[in-house]
Design a protein that fits this description.
Rossmann fold; ABC transporter transmembrane region fold; about 65% helix; single chain; about 575 residues; six-stranded mixed sheet; four-stranded antiparallel sheet; alpha/beta
Length: about 575
């Protein structure tokens, strides 16, 4: 329990560290809180003085009461203004803090290795970036708003009560620790439940993101019932842990209110006895009862703040897990930035596996000459796409070395290396924006003429002109308002616009009809002229003209040569090629 409490304090300190740049708002909020609370506590004194001016029936000092009413109105007006200013400062402080946390988390997400993105549910990451950060915002907002005024109110009322009567004040102070003990006990219980609630919420978000993003597949395979069952199961767990967290957190307020009732009763009893004994006036007793009520009220608010902070800390821990992810290995200080390349690529005894337990690529040797078209073929899971990931340095090799133009890629800046390649994948990606913006993604300063030229080369200019607004047509982030083949054509146009020095085509024409594919292959032939290119293909008829074909199986190159040489050899490639035409 001590370790958990220490961890919670560490998380809270870390949250507050993001607030340091906005200390001015914190100071102003405290100043306004002091003024607001001071005037609020001054009001019962005015009320007590007014009561003391009502001496007996027919004996009322109306002139004195009018003066007190004017002071009371001024105090209320200034209190309203200072409370508004305090809320303005605390809102600014909370939202700026949360904005910086979200920015930091997003920056971390941009710098983590792809291994992390591939190994964590995307829905859970989304839940952390949005829902959990909002929970932090709610906790901070309530904390800054109510904590300041609450603490100042507690110490302020003690000071005012001490100025009236010491003994009655001691009654209030001695009963108070019971309220703090109850709130602390319940807060310990709620943290673990809020933590489970945040994790389950992330699991549910992940499922919803998965089902919505793949709705066509869900319906095609009749998975609706199973999806509902999975959703119900997770939702049920979320309900159970949510109810438990809410139940325990809701115990705080009534429990502290009970203790506060004891405080108020104690003040009433001892105050009445003091008034009967002539130690205090009736007005002072009224003032004391008001202070007792105001003194206990912050404990209810602070207990609510503690509950909200438990949820915020649990959410903060999840978002800090993202921020604390080790970034990808930084480029060395003396990293080389290649502006051009001669097109030579060498893989020297490269070994790599996604998991240490499962061997994939071992001692891969490859020497690519300038301008060569290298085709990589083989059965599913043999390591074709993995080679592409290593060439682009999405993953670093476990051993061995990859060199481009004789320079080891580990000694090159990643941005420089990737700028040398143009990449078209089987899985298309489009951003939410216009067709023009999607084609110009790799070259934002491209002109309309350059974009149209690239689109014509990719044979997508015709269908773009038929869209409602042509190149200015908005497409959704998943490209659901255009076909899969059209999405792939736009991705091809994107590469043709940037004119890279080397190409990587991973099943780049898999979703395109045969007639258009022939035209695209012709465009690719023109584009790859004099450029080194790597082509991953399942349809072997598309790579017959390749300068060199690598046949992979189980992470190794088992055959290599031209199409004719491999066919004449009658080996694995021969069987693979003929299997596409067998009935």
């Amino acid at each position: 329990m001590k370790n958990r409490t220490s961890a919670q304090k560490g998380v809270l300190r870390r949250i507050l560290s993001f607030s340091k740049p906005y200390t001015v708002y914190l100071v102003l909020a405290m100043v306004f809180a002091v003024i607001s609370v001071g005037l609020t506590l001054y009001a019962p004194i005015l009320t007590g003085n007014a009561l003391d001016l009502v001496i007996d029936k027919g004996l009322v000092d109306f002139d004195g009461i009018v003066k007190i009413l004017i002071k009371f109105a001024a105090a209320v007006g200034i209190t309203c203004i200072t409370q508004w200013l305090m809320n303005l400062c605390t809102n600014r402080l909370a939202y700026c803090t949360v904005r910086d946390i979200r920015v930091k988390a997003f920056e971390s997400l941009q710098n983590v290795p792809l291994k992390y993105i591939d190994s964590v549910s995307h829905g859970d990451i989304i839940s952390r970036m949005i829902t959990d950060v909002e929970q932090i915002s709610d906790g901070l907002l309530m904390g800054f708003t109510q904590l300041f005024s609450g603490i100042i109110t507690i110490f302020g009322t003690i000071g005012f009560m001490l100025s009236i009567d010491l003994k009655i004040t001691l009654v209030v102070v001695l009963i108070t620790p019971l309220s703090l003990f109850v709130a602390s006990f319940i807060a310990e219980k709620t943290f673990s439940m809020f933590k489970v609630q945040s994790e389950t919420r992330g699991e549910l978000t992940s499922l919803v993101e998965e089902m919505v993003g793949n709705q066509k597949i869900v319906k095609a395979f009749g998975y609706e019932k199973q999806a509902e069952e999975r959703f119900d199961e997770i939702n049920c767990r979320l309900r159970v842990c949510g109810v438990k967290a809410l139940f325990f957190s809701s115990l705080t307020n009534p429990s502290t209110r009970f203790v506060n009732g004891l405080v108020y009763s104690g003040v009433g009893i001892f105050g009445a006895l003091a008034a009967i004994g002539g130690n205090i006036t009736v007005g002072q007793l009224s003032c004391f009862l008001s202070y007792a009520n105001q003194y206990t009220k912050p404990f209810n608010e602070i207990s609510g703040v503690i509950t909200e902070l438990q949820s915020a800390i649990a959410s903060a821990k999840r978002i800090f897990d993202v921020i604390d992810q080790p970034p990808q290995t930084p480029d060395p200080e003396n990293a080389v930035s290649l502006e051009t390349t001669d097109g030579t690529v060498t893989l020297d005894k490269v070994s790599f596996s996604y998991s240490p337990d499962v061997k994939l690529i071992e001692d891969l040797e490859l020497a690519v000459k300038p301008g060569q078209k290298i085709a990589i073929v083989g059965p599913t899971g043999c390591g074709k796409t993995t080679v592409i990931n290593l060439l682009m340095r999405f993953y670093d090799v476990d051993s061995g070395e990859i060199r481009v133009s004789g320079v080891p890629v580990r000694q090159m800046k990643r941005d420089s290396l990737r700028s040398l390649y143009g990449m078209v994948l089987q899985e298309t990606w489009l951003r939410s924006g216009t067709v023009f913006e999607n084609i110009a993604y790799g070259k934002p300063d491209a002109t309309q003429e350059e974009v149209e030229k690239a689109a014509r080369a990719a044979h997508c200019h015709g269908f773009i002109k038929r869209l409602p607004n042509g190149y200015m047509t908005e497409i959704s982030d998943d490209g659901s308002n255009i076909s899969q083949g059209q999405k792939q054509l736009l991705c091809i146009a994107r590469v043709m616009l940037s004119l890279p020095q080397m190409l990587i085509l991973d099943e780049a024409t898999s979703s395109i009809d045969t007639r258009t594919e022939i035209r695209i292959q012709q465009a690719f032939d023109q584009m790859t002229e004099g450029r080194t290119s790597f082509v991953v293909a399942h349809r072997l008829s598309t790579i017959r003209k390749a300068d060199h074909i690598l046949v992979m199986n189980k992470g190794r190159i088992i055959e290599q040569g031209t199409h004719d040489q491999l066919i004449a050899k009658g080996g694995f490639y021969f069987d693979l090629y003929n299997s596409q035409f067998s009935v």
